Amino acid sequence: MDSILLQPGGLFIAVSVLIGLAIGSFLNVVIHRLPRMMERDWTAQCAELSGETPAPSEPLSLLLPRSRCPHCNRQIQAFENIPVVSFLLLHGRCRGCGQSISWRYPVVEAATGLLFGFVAWQLGPTLAAVGAMGFVAAMVTLTFIDFDTQLLPDDITLPLLWIGLLLNIFGTYTDLTSAVIGAMAGYLSLWTVYWLFKLATGKEGMGYGDFKLLAAIGAWLGWQMLPLTILMSSLVGALVGIGLIVLARHGRNVPIPFGPYLAAAGVIALFWGKPLTQAYLGLL
Questions:
Q1: Do residues 30 and 146 make contact, with C-beta atoms less than 8 angstroms apart?
Q2: 20 to 30 A Cα–Cα from 3, which one of 102, 132, 175, 213?
Q3: CA separation for the pair 213, 186 (Å, rounded)
């Protein structure tokens, strides 16, 4: 550990990993609560439109109430909420009732920590690194929310789009013109595919959240990265879909979320987009 810290940028990488672990713990809260907060808002709006009084419920936000065990409802203490470490010390079980804790929590924490460390290693202590950490945190959050609910909340995708455009005013990842075209092209490309598919089959092949996510990726990385992002996400999505149908007997009519594959492709394009695009064009 000392040798790593003594290397150029080693301290920044180590601190970034620790910050990533802490943020990953918060992302678990967002992944769990944000869809429920959205559902409550929709229920309240429906009740208001129909003239009914919404049923009273416990206040719910990203900060309150404090985290609890989903099995016994016991409030989780601070020492039980140390990223990854608490899961290992508790052997993946609740300290109160002994029920299993989902593997999801340490995976999200560890993935965010490792991604933050990788960003720090690649970009150093720069504005680009800080922005990229926010980008990958959003991608992790959207991936797991989409897996759970097949939703890509506007509360994440729209701010992500505007922040990408703001950062590229300074040419952080691409020039502003490419970012603006990327946002428009990202949205309209999947919007066009959506309507062509719907006109041909009468079914909806994807949701509007996918359009907004690709628009956000275009705003961050520029229109030049969109073909690679679409190609990689479609290829991986198709392979996973075929695997689920063949191996897991996943019904063909059961929808498969596309957001996680877009998010993964966006992260890959952030780090390796230019060499991969050059290699792809070289093959053509």
A1: no
A2: 132
A3: 8
d(CA 52, CA 64): 26
d(CA 76, CA 163): 34
Residues 266, 215 contacting (CB under 8 angstroms): no
Q: Is 19 helix (H, G, I), strand (E, B) or coil?
A: helix
Taking phi over 0 as left and psi of -120 to 50 as alpha, with beta for the rest, 241 belongs to alpha
The two structure tokens encoding residue 156? 């994440």
Residue 93 bridge partners (DSSP):
100
CB 11, CB 115: distance < 8 Å = no
Which pLDDT score, from 0 to 100, does residue 69 have?
84
Q: Give pLDDT, residue 70.
A: 82
Mean pLDDT per 10-residue interval, the chain, length 284 residues: 58 96 97 94 85 78 86 86 92 89 95 97 95 98 96 97 98 97 97 92 88 98 96 86 71 79 96 88 73
Number of residues that this document lists for the chain? 284
109 Cβ neighbours under 8 A, 6+ residues apart: 21, 24, 25, 27, 28, 83, 84
Q: Which two tokens stand for residue 83?
A: 């990223």
The reported pTM is 0.92
